[in-house]
Amino acid sequence: MRADAVRNRGLLIEVALDAFTHQKDVTLGAIAKKAGVGIGTLYRHFPTREALIEAVYRTELEKLCDAAPELLETHGPEAALREWMDRFIAYAATKHDLKEALQAVIAAGMNPFEHSRAKMTEAVSALLAPLGARTEPMDLLALLIGVAQNGDPDQAERMLDLIMAGVLHDAETRNPENAGTQHVAARTAPPAREPR
After folding, report:
1. How far, CA to CA in Å, does 136 sit from each of 85, 89, 113, 133?
2. pTM for the full predicted model
3. pLDDT by residue (tens digit) across 25-37?
4. Average pLDDT estimate for 55-76
5. Secondary structure, 3-state, 140-192
6. How far is Cα 105 from Cα 156, in angstroms, rounded to an integer?
7. 95-106 pLDDT tens trace
8. 41 and 77 assigned to the same domain
9. How many domains does the chain have?
10. Which of 16, 100, 141, 167 minimizes the number of CB atoms within 10 Å of its CB?
């Protein structure tokens, strides 16, 4: 794909994300206009409205999962996991905002969630491994989903801290010789970035 085509596709997905989460009945023409491209360009990338919605969702999923190795490169293991947890909550909020749009995708016979579980499990496994925790990735994801459904941001933060403490306790119980090393790494890691 040519560089300009890649740029147009990315811009259309970015504009569509904002549109689908804030405007229930936004037209594809309005999305194309805001992205600064013709409607023909939009249809070349996304033949149907459902194809565009699915691409928006998959892009957000990929951003979240791709963040795992990136965070491990720039943060200590504990700080990387904690930052990723915050990003998961932001991702869940976006997914909730896309709920009606995604239902249309499913009704059209498409499955936007086909690879979600495998990708999420891989990302969480990568984040848990450096900590030496025995926590099951799907258990952690189930807890994060529960937190994401909480309407109180302050309580959600406290719940994430409790989950983090449980993961670290598990890691230190399994590897007592490493107790405290993750905490040092977290204190020396770069400041956490805002969720994308």
Report:
1. 15, 19, 20, 9
2. 0.82
3. 899 999 999 999 9
4. 96
5. HHHHHHHHHCCCCHHHHHHHHHHHHHHHHHHHHHHCHHHCCHHHHHHHHCCCC
6. 30
7. 999 988 999 899
8. no
9. 2
10. 100
